[in-house]
Each structure stands twice: as structure tokens, then as C-alpha cells.
Design brief:
The chain has one domain. The protein has five helices and four strands. The protein has a four-stranded antiparallel sheet. Strand 1 and strand 2 form a beta hairpin. Helix 1 crosses helix 4, helix 3 packs antiparallel against helix 4 and helix 4 runs antiparallel to helix 5. The radius of gyration is 18 Å and the shape is globular. The model has no long low-confidence stretch (mean pLDDT 90).
């Protein structure tokens, strides 16, 4: 399938929608944010503006391996800069995200139309970046909720759909860069 601008936008938009819907579900099921809200409008208002809702439970998917639990990541991957001052951290991450999204658009424009994997990967990263960007603009941190662990011995950082899309996209870009270029005769 040819990854045109329209397909790129559709992939990115799908990631954003899935990311925000799953974050809504996580906030709804795992926190107290909607406890006093009646009706969709009040829930939407709480989701869009309520900062730091109290976690109320975790949901076990696979005992000792996988839970859904609410987490707030004020940093980047692996909580990078999470402890820095908010006056620095939030504008810094917003600026970095805008620069990254701009670079993705530039790479997409310069890529060959038959670079299907690269273009698909860029769309995944772009959609994931937008999903987490929305959180940072809205509440100043990223909502994470997928918790993988090996009993209580090893834990992977809690993540979300946007993080997953970024990770898969970057992995595809790296794998694609390892493939030798076909020789042109």
C-alpha cells in the first residue's frame, strides 16, 4: 500500500484517537476523576482539565505480569527529566515535540514514495507524539496506564498507546536502516 499524505494523516489520527480513548478509559476506571461527574459533559470537562486525580485501583490482566494502573509521567521516556522544575520541563518537552514532529514531516516529504515501511513508521511516531503532546498541553504530564512486570522482581516503565506507537515506529525505522540499500544498475 502506498503511504501518501492522506494515509499518513489517517494512521497518525488513528493513533491519537486510540490513545486518547484509552486514556479516558484509564482515568475513568482507575481514578476518582469521574466519581462526582454526572453525564458525559461533566466527565469530558473532568478529563480535559482535572489534574492529578487520585488513583483508586489497579486492574489485573495477568497476575504477576500485567496490570492496568494509573500513572502520571512528568518526564519523557523512562521518566527522563521528571524531577526537573515544571517551568522548565513542560515548555522544554512541548518544544522538543514540535521540533520532532516538524522533522518527521520533513523526513516524510523527502522520502521516496515506495519507502512504505519508513513512511508507516513515521506516521506511527507522529501519531504517538501528538497523543502525548495533547496530555502535556492539557494537564502538564502524560497519562500512562499499562504496567508490565515480572512478579515483583522486574518492572517495565508504565506506558500508553502513544508510547507503544512511538516505540514500534522507532523500531521499524531502526530495522529499516539496517537493511542494505538495493544497488541500482
Amino acid at each position: 500500500m502506498k503511504i501518501s499524505w492522506q494515509v499518513f494523516a489517517a494512521i497518525a489520527a488513528t493513533i491519537v484517537v486510540l490513545d486518547q480513548i484509552t486514556k479516558w478509559l484509564a482515568v475513568s476506571a482507575l481514578t476518582t476523576a469521574f466519581d462526582q461527574a454526572s453525564g458525559f459533559g461533566e466527565r469530558l470537562s473532568a478529563f480535559l482539565s482535572k489534574e492529578h486525580p487520585l488513583p483508586k485501583r489497579a486492574i489485573t490482566v495477568l497476575e504477576n505480569f500485567w496490570h492496568f494502573r494509573y500513572a502520571e509521567n512528568t518526564g519523557a521516556a523512562f521518566s527522563f527529566l521528571a524531577d526537573s522544575a515544571p517551568w522548565f520541563r513542560t515548555p522544554f518537552f512541548l518544544l522538543i515535540t514540535i521540533v520532532a514532529m516538524t522533522m518527521i514531516v520533513v523526513f516524510f516529504r523527502k522520502s521516496q514514495p515506495d519507502a512504505h515501511v519508513m513512511r508507516f513508521a513515521l506516521a506511527l511516531v507522529f501519531g504517538g507524539a501528538i497523543g502525548n503532546f495533547i496530555d502535556r498541553v492539557r494537564v502538564g504530564y502524560v497519562i500512562d496506564f499499562v504496567s508490565w512486570h515480572w512478579y515483583d522482581k522486574a518492572t517495565w516503565p508504565t506506558f500508553n498507546i502513544a508510547d507503544s506507537a512511538i516505540t514500534v515506529g522507532v523500531a521499524l525505522l531502526l530495522l529499516g536502516s539496517l537493511r542494505p540499500e538495493p544497488s541500482k544498475v
